[in-house]
Amino acid sequence: MQPQSTDAAQPGIPNGTTSHQLRALLAMVGVSLLLNYVETMIIPGILTIQTFFSTTEGTVAWITSAFLIVGSAVSPLFGKWGDSYGKKRMFLIALVFYTAGVGMAGFSPTIYFLIAARAIQGIGFAIVPLALAIIAETFPNERIATAQGVVSATFAIGAAAGLIGGSYIIQDFGWQWAFHSAFILSLVLFAVVARFLPRGHPGTGRKVGYETVVLLMAGVSLVLLYLTEGPYDGWYSPYGLGALGAGLALTVGFFVAESRKSNPLIQLNLLRIRNVLVANGIGIISGIGLFMLFFAVTFYAEDPAPLGLGLDPISAGLTIGPAAVLMLIAGPLVGRVVTKAGPKPALVVGGAIAIAGFTLFVYNRATTTDVVIAVAISMVGAVAVIIPIVNMISVSLPRETVATGLGLNTMLRNIGGAIGPVVATTIMSTYTTTIRVPHDGVLIPLSFPNATAFDYVFYLGIAAMFLAIIFSLASKNYVFRKQPEK
Predict the structure, then answer these.
(1) pLDDT value of residue 206
(2) Which residues contact 225 (CB under 8 A, 6 or more apart)?
(3) From 22, 176, 283, 311, which residue has the greatest number of CB atoms within 10 Å?
(4) Does residue 264 surpass a pLDDT of 90?
(5) How far is CA 141 from CA 16, 22, 207, 369, 479, in A?
(6) Angle at the Cα of 282 from the Cα atoms of 281 and 283, rounded to 5 degrees
(7) Which residues of 112-128 are buried (b: 16+ CB within 10 A; e: fewer)?
(8) Which domain range does residue 242 map to?
């Protein structure tokens, strides 16, 4: 029986939302804002942190790599725990890890302590698939997509606030206060979520076997280790190739072991469901394309003219401001399109919009205004791709496996997100031009990516999104009709 609604609709909120559902939705929106704020506020402070600890570029890169690797590895496990022991319980546990990691980071005495704190934050990254699973559990099928669209739309708002706010905080108070402020927000959010988030389904109570979980986590971690360290250690270093080979072997071993278990972490037969397979494939492909875009645009905005726009970090962050506003509008609208027309049309249109944004970057990026427009179009296309694939996972899997499925999808999108910057870095380090830039009152020669490098990155982005559209044509479309009230 579908929930009866007695509450008035609110702007951006799915029509017919009950107070019970609204509390869950607002809690998930708050967590999404926090996560994206924290993870993007770090970006303007990377160089400051490197200077503070007198460390190398390769070492300081682990501030983001540690979070990504650990977060990707634990997402399927926390999803499984959520299905087994209750999503709210595991959500709060993940949020405790995230809050603890943020709190520790601001008091880091060494770069290695900071990296360890970021790894603990990575455990808390499991709040992302759990949040989407809570939405799927709380809302009826015909309103899941719109509610997930609201949550997805907040990604850019949190990111914009993080880039701009982080730049000001780091500039005026120091990088430590970026984490201190986030810790305070995390504590407040934890108290709100613990108090107001509905309890939800208690879970199936099925025990989780950890033998195969270790294989998956180790395998994914080693593959991501290779991808993140490749630009610094070299793609053919014995250390890197050893990590890649071991990671692939462990991942294959995971699937072999899973096929023989009575209570597997991931029921492999469910992964063969057409829409689940398509959603995971698009997740990897779109992750590659979109993170190539974000990485290249960041460099282009801050590289000195004439090779880039020569913007300071704050101005570069402001370039995604209009995109954040548009995503806030587009997210719920895309959700309604998925509900009324199905995921396939939304995926095709979203991929086409993203391609249009990439194309603008190739042919029209001479001014800041040009970049603002292209970023806005690209990010609207991104949200129009993410919402359908998340919804396809949410409604295609049995309810007792949704959190696990979303955890796996999050992991795959993160793998794509790790590959994207690697591809962009390789291209931008291959096609460079040396120019003289001022440094301590002296002009010194430095190499920067040139126009050819950025063109190739954006061309590959177009190809990735085109491939995502091809994949989407293999999906099985569906629509939901609103259930009559009884």
Answers:
(1) 72
(2) 65, 69, 243, 247
(3) 283
(4) no
(5) 13, 15, 28, 40, 10
(6) 90
(7) eebbbbbbbbbbbbbbb
(8) 211-264
CATH of the domain at 458: 1.20.1250.20
CA distance 61 to 231: 11
486/481 Cα distance (integer angstroms): 15
Q: Binning pLDDT at 50, 70 and 90, where does residue 98 land?
A: very high
Single-letter code of the amino acid located at 384: A
| Both tokens assigned to 221 | 């971690």
Hey, what are 249's tokens? 């072997």
Cα(84)–Cα(90) distance, rounded to whole angstroms? 10
Which residue did the predictor score with more confidence, 329 or 367? 367
**Domain identity same for 230 and 201:** no
Residue 15, amino acid: N
Query: What is the pTM (predicted TM-score) of this model?
Result: 0.80
Question: What per-residue confidence (pLDDT) applies to 209?
Answer: 67
Q: How many CB atoms lie within 10 A of CB 447?
A: 11
Q: Give 288-332 pLDDT, tens digit per residue.
A: 888 888 778 878 888 888 888 888 767 776 777 787 778 878 888
Which amino acid is residue 290, in one-letter code? L
């609110």: which residue's tokens?
10
Torsion of CA 34, 40, 41, 43, to 10 degrees: 160
pLDDT tens across 467-481, in order?
999 999 999 998 876
Q: Quote the crossing angle between the two packed helices 46-53 and 175-196, to the nearest 10°.
A: 120
Q: Is 32 domain-assigned?
A: yes
Same domain, 169 and 259: no
- Per-residue model confidence (pLDDT) at position 203: 66
134 in the same domain as 67: yes
Residue 153 and residue 173 in one domain:
yes
Classify residue 109 by burial, with Cβ atoms within 10 Å: 0-12, 13-18, 19+: exposed
pLDDT (0 to 100) of residue 349: 93
